[in-house]
Every structure is written in C-alpha cells, then in structure tokens.
Amino acid sequence: MNNIILGILMMRRMTAYELRSVIGEHFQSMCSDSLGSIQAALKKLLQSGYVTYDEVTENGRFKKRYAITKEGRQSLIQWIKVPIDMGKTKNMDLGKFLFMGLVSKEEQTYLIDKLIASLQEDYMTLQEIKESLMPELQKSEAIDYFREDTVYLDGICDIKETSDVMQIVDDYSQFSLATLEYGIDLAAFNLAWFKNFKEKHLKRMEE
C-alpha cells in the first residue's frame, strides 16, 4: 500500500479522505481502501520521511494534507524500476477452489455460482469506471493543478528529467488507463473461464 499511496501523491497533495476516495474508486484490486489502513501507511511514510503534510481548513475543520517528499519520489522510482514479477501476485483463496472436491456436489455448484456472481460484479465495476473516465478533462485538470502548485511541478519534473508538463501528464495517464484495461481483460478472462468450468461441471453431474 505504501507505494500505491506514494504513486497517487506524485500527482497532487491529498488528505487521507481524498486518498481513500481515489483508492476506493481505482485501486481496490491492489490494496485496501479502509481509512485505518491508509492512516497506518501514512504514519509509516511520515516516519520514513517519504511524505510530509500541512494543515488546511475544510468546512471549518483542520485536515492534514499530505505531499510526497524528494526522498519519497526517489524511493518510489527505485521500486518502479525493479522488473514486475507477475508470479508474486498470490491469491490464497484459490486454495478453496483447489480443494473444492472435498465438499458435496450441491455445495460445489453453489460456491461456483457465488464466485461467478462476484467476478461478474468486479467486471461490471471496472467497465463502469472506464466508461466514467474523461481522460482529456482529467489531464487538463492535472496540468492546471501543476501550474498552480509549482513546487509540486518542480519535484516531478526533476524525477522525469523534463519540464514538459503535458508530456508528464500524458505518460502518467497512459499507464493508468492501461492498468485499468489490464484489469478489465483479466476479469473478463476469469469470468469466461469459470463459466466454462461450470458448464463442464454440470455435465459431469448429469452423467
């Protein structure tokens, strides 16, 4: 979760509640969006010197607004530069499917149906997120934000080794959208696979 938070904070300053909203809408498949988990991660990042905060007033209440530091940017970039290990993504719940042959046929069918329903819901949620996106508007808002917060702009320009703010936002947007599309394709594959398995399972029960 720490690196996900750092990645989000690369683009703008945020309160814990704003981080929770962004994670809930776009990153639930990667980490928890519980406020407690986010606050615990922020505490560790503060202790490491990877984030800092200032206090802002919102609706008459003081809130901490977090920002990534130079050290936080460097730590995030070092993490990104380590090649992705797709085998590292482990789902212990898959063990339930592995040993599902130990329960009754009726329970097997019930559990498979519940799994398919859950996968269908995940797939639809991701599709709705994609359909709700307005990439050009969001990129325009990001550019406007950087032009107002020149300190933040200087920090990301230093990491990207360019002062072209439009290119910076385009690059970030490209991989954000690609990650969402990967999630949609993966959800579609899982849904189709388990639907196909269910058909074979039901045929076997009829034999």
Automatic annotation (TrEMBL):
Residues 5-76 form the Transcription regulator PadR N-terminal domain. SUPFAM superfamilies: Winged helix' DNA-binding domain. Pfam families: PadR. It comes from the Bacteria. This is Putative transcriptional regulator, PadR family.
